[in-house]
Amino acid sequence: MKQYSLFRIFTTSIMLIGMMALGGLNASANIKIVAKVDGKPITNYDVDQRVLFLKAVTNLPETENIEKQIRKDALQMLVDDTLKMQAALSTNPLVQQQANRPATDLIDQSFASDSESGSAALRRLNLNYDAVKTKFAADLIWSGYLQDKFADIFAEIDGKIDLELERIRADASQPQVNISEIVLAPEPNRPLAATMALATEMVKAVKKGADFNAIAQQYSAAGTAQQGGRLGWVLLERLPEKLQAMIAPLDVGGVSDPIQLDGAVYIFKKTGDRKDGANDISQSRIWLVRAVLPVNAEATKSDRLEAAAQLGRDVTDINDCDSMVALHEEYGSGTAPRLEDLRLGELAPQMQNLVKELNVGEPSEALSFSEGVASFMVCKRLKPELNLPTRDDIYRVQFNRLFGSLSERYLLRLRRKASIEFID
Predict the structure, then answer these.
(1) Rounded CA gap, 240 and 236, in Å?
(2) For residue 229, which of 192, 269, 259 has the smallest C-alpha distance?
(3) Taking every annotated instance into account, which residue ranges of this chain make up the domain PpiC (predicted)?
(4) How far apart are CA 269 and CA 252, in angstroms?
């Protein structure tokens, strides 16, 4: 009996091992090579993982057309990552090993939270850790490779910073907008019409809550992609007229429709607006006093008009804040007379318009409120300091602009030189 049991266990074990082997063979059989870049294979599993990654970080709608386009984009991104890695390895065989730690840190920066690590977040999203790490490593390696290869060109940025600062000072009062951008360049697997269609879907997704900056980080061809497309404050008049007409009317937080310019497709998000440029009057600090003449809540319109006329007569000869406070106390409204250290932009629009026109020590016209009618006086006004960008800010903008241009041009050169085979 014991021998039979041992035999059965042995037989069952052999069967299980055989089933596992067959399962492994079947799993391997499902993995196919879909492209080769200079002989280096890219599999359908690699594409599946990149598709999952793009969906997770961009939240683009899962329509049939978008699904097909994302797969095409994922494959092209993998081809480009392979080209970038090969170029970097040709000059530094250890570069991939050196990028491991920074890529791991970048995963934590991008996905970790107080409640879970970056690796745990990837598991929750069903993303393969090594696939994401390889993608981040390729981005870091490419950035370092371009900076080394074109070191002389990047070194010229420092010499342009002072000139740019002078230009900004000269235009300090001109309207500025804070914008983020997504720049979509047509790809071998995505012609211009398909690129415009993808951009349209991106705009729809952002308006429904998708993260603009996350989409920019993965899709944008501009150098600002590394900062999630954040371009920062720019002078409105320096933008092409076509873009000015599109961006200026946007509300803060608004997203533009896609626009084609110079062979690429652009999407913009306005995140700030300075009508007066770096001299942003809304940031002025003001100290006010008021004289409030109480009026019964049930008072008629004519009663309020009469109260306003009386207040106007009472403040005619007042030209200092202490006298305004004394008048307020005579009225006995029980409200505080002094409103100190306020930012102009924090006031209601009606009050902003009133205060902007007042000189220090000048009483305003009477305004009607629920508790009565009031006249305001500015006691002190501090204009905001000139809000200029730092040298680091200017360097980053110049760097991103140069990096985006060099990256696109050099990647096109690598594509032309490489042997790229797509396998159906």
Answers:
(1) 9
(2) 269
(3) 174-272
(4) 8
Residues 42 and 53 placed together within one structural domain of the fold? yes
Number of independent structural domains in the chain: 3
Structure tokens that stand for 205 in this block: 């997704």
pLDDT (tens digit per residue) in 303-357:
999 999 999 999 999 999 999 999 999 999 889 999 999 988 888 888 888 888 8
Nearest partner of 417 among 72, 71, 75, 90, judged by Cα: 90
DSSP H helical segments within 334-390, as ranges? 349-356
Question: 3-state DSSP call for residue 123?
Answer: helix
Residue 46 · residue 36 · CB < 8 Å: no
Q: How far is 307 from 323, CA to CA, in rounded Å?
A: 19
Which residues touch 286 (CB under 8 Å, ≥6 apart)?
Answer: 341, 342, 343, 344, 355, 378, 380, 381, 382
Assess whether 43 and 187 both reside in one domain.
Answer: no
**Quick one: tokens of 10?**
């042995």
Nearest CA to 180 out of 256, 231, 242, 250 is that of 231
Do 37 and 140 lie in a common domain?
Answer: yes
